[in-house]
Amino acid sequence: MENKVVIFWFRRDLRLDDNVGLTHALKSGFRVLPVFIFDTTILNLLENKYDRRVDYIHQVLTLMNEQLHQHGSGIKTFHGTPSEVFDTIATTYAVEAVYCNHDYEPDAIRRDLSVKKQLSEKGIAFHSFKDQVVFEKGEVAKSDGSPYTVFTPYAKKWKETLQINEYSVSIADNGKFVPMPPEQIHSLSAIGFQKTDMKFSKPSPDESIVKNYHLYRDFPAMNLTTYLGIALRFGTISVRQCVDFARKHNETWLNELIWREFFMQILYHYPQVVNTSFKPQYDFIQWRNNEEEFARWCEGTTGYPIVDAGMRQLNETGFMHNRVRMIVASFLCKHLLIDWRWGEAYFAEKLNDYDLSANNGNWQWAAGCGCDAAPYFRIFNPTAQTQKFDKNLEYTRTWNPDFELAVPIVDHQAARERALKTYGAALKKE
After folding, report:
1. Where is this site: Electron transfer via tryptophanyl radical (predicted)?
2. Which of 349, 398, 413, 423 is least surrounded by CB atoms within 10 angstroms?
3. Does 257 carry a binding-site annotation?
């Protein structure tokens, strides 16, 4: 008993407070060894080694390691595949069990099943818990047990189901970590990445922003969104803390948190959406997929000022305001008739807060092919959107100061008619 340890495997839950799986590990009766794997299966896919997300993770782990030093412990980091790493751990330590929190992406589910099997063959238990959402999988379902595929009834049932214990803080005992001398985690250069301009600070909801979220969230120049997307993505803030805060201060922000869980359960129940449209008939669309026009969209040189401002903000900072994300996504799919998967992949490469379920769900929403009731003939007019949400052009001028010199890549009315005709022809093939 004294020599055996349990492992807590950090993934999308990079915090020591209010961490369900970690709490269970600390209550196991064994000393807890915290580990993080710089997973080469994922990192090798990142061609740009100046990646703010990797730097963000590295900064968080550094701070957590320093926190654990105060308790005479630390985080062991590894660089390799989970399979390789757990072979190493199992030969180095007398491991009783591995604890972690659930992940709902198809690749992550396959990874965890593989690790569970590998550990089982060594006589090591694998325990996983719900942590990154309030409700998971089928916990919010229709009366017949089937998953919701439309947001509004899902959100209604979600709120009806919510009880205080669902968003109560998970309390951990910091006194039961494996003792170890202070040591540094892997450096960025050791895992093949570079330092970026990313600056991590402990995230928390801002009451002044959240209280007025419903009033100002659509105006990109006002800079009044929560900026907690990356924190929720990597678990540097607890979703329970956010839900509790939203309940007290703003239902519109609570709905945004519910949208996040809605898309997660869609991805869990319908993993095929990673590569195909939720509504299969939309895969009949004859996309133009003009590579030169796609490059201009990526660069922010379409000649549509707010579209180009958004893409330049994304390219320069890794962030784009949510209203602008909808505008640029609609423009790519409807005005240029470029496959939503191309845009989704570009966002996946660039967004600091990239999350597969939300990225996929929102791109399919923009293309009209997703699970929610969004008619294909809803086509955002970038000019009208600018007049409504950036009428003084403050946001546009900030990110696209030379916009008055640009020539539009396509005429809005002609593009709209082309999109309606193309979509309509595809849907007749049902």
Report:
1. 287, 340, 363
2. 413
3. yes
